[in-house]
Amino acid sequence: MKITLIGSGNVANYLATTLHSHGHSINEVFSRNSKTGRALAKKAKSKFIASSSNLQLNSDAYIIAVNDDEIESVAKTISLKNKLVIHTSGATALNSIKKCSSQYGVVYPLISITKNNKLLPANYTVCIEANNTTALKKCKQLAKCLSNKIIEVNSMKREALHLSAVMVNNFGNHLFAQADKLLTQNKLELDLLYPIINQTADRIQKESPANLQTGPAIRNDKTVMKKHLQIISKNKLLSSLYKSFSKSIFEFNKKK
Amino acid sequence: MKITLIGSGNVANYLATTLHSHGHSINEVFSRNSKTGRALAKKAKSKFIASSSNLQLNSDAYIIAVNDDEIESVAKTISLKNKLVIHTSGATALNSIKKCSSQYGVVYPLISITKNNKLLPANYTVCIEANNTTALKKCKQLAKCLSNKIIEVNSMKREALHLSAVMVNNFGNHLFAQADKLLTQNKLELDLLYPIINQTADRIQKESPANLQTGPAIRNDKTVMKKHLQIISKNKLLSSLYKSFSKSIFEFNKKK
What we know:
Two copies of one chain form a homodimer.
Chain A: E1 2-6, H1 10-21, E2 25-30, H2 34-43, E3 47-49, E4 61-64, H3 71-77, E5 84-87, E6 103-109, E7 125-130, H4 133-143, E8 149-152, H5 155-185, H6 194-203, H7 216-219, H8 222-231, H9 236-254
Parallel strand pairs in A: 1-2, 1-4, 2-3, 4-5, 5-6, 7-8
Antiparallel strand pairs in A: 6-7
């Protein structure tokens, strides 16, 4: 397919490279950020467009890969008649782009895409959705370039998946960052924790996480929790996080 | 060595099996819980003792493997003269058991040990500490049965390691449990998230987690965060956790 990319961030860069390597051509790159936009257009051997009014109608698909909170405002500025328009967001409803065109869909890669991320895991989940079967078929064709694991889900299910992904990835990564900081302050290295980090991720793939909970919070061990809060007493945000976790773990497991 | 185990929970069970398989013998099992105590004694081909006053002085090491908040109270009830006494807690200071004996130490396995946990990762970190070199040597000898990665750290560093482990394991596992529940409510399976869970754990072993943060909180994307909070609005504890995380992620990364 001939593709127009709208956006020039991490996802747009990833899509440009991946779709190109699967034989699709990047026709245009439209971005509000002319620096990253021009760089991506150059990389994708494509044309850079600075204004939505210059968008050509000769592409087969228009992929909006911008921050979630900008999708609607970008969508309002473009009119693509019956051309397929797609967004890539986990948290944005399908119909938020319905005014752009008569054909629209979603291709949401359920994975964390960062700037320097060269290798992504194989077979991560790609969620697709569209307003008709023709659009869905094209979404599937593009999704296949990203992964073999494609599921069709409605916007509500996709939003639940996105929130879950935010919890296990964004929140999980923040816990690693906080642990790393605490260890550095104590002249210790994060690599001491790699085995327990791997264990935590591995074992829930064999048994339900609800059955694997250990630690002071589930035992309501106040002595240990008090000590932990003393260690991080200067860090109010982390202390607040620690308290929210302890409460949530205790209540969650009491209800079981 | 001839070993007396004090406690009959997950850690005591793990130590009994592992130390026995490395040629040490379990001499006695003392536990306040006679059911699990008798079961462990039977499994370890050992003698069950219901009262601390019946403890024999013919073991080479006495390992206190009880809940953190019970270590001091157990330690107060026993007197072991110059016999080596060891606790296995990450969160308890070395000197909390100093009244039991003239020789005391810590062997803390920095890993999550659950009841049905048969396979633990190789080379997880074992923290050791003791009040003199003789005791430290024996702690090392026992620690070697658990893992090849042994580090000598003082109580303060061990407590920081324990808190870090609680964050990445206990808190991380709770995030998995919450994600699992949310997905089940939406008729989706946790296995859709396995690739992103593995990705989150893998990539911080190549790059600092502080450089890998993505998601709505770091971008301060209020639209997405509001939507997420709507999805979990009936779950007050999870909502509170979500808010604490979003604030902590934003502030943490702003300071960078």
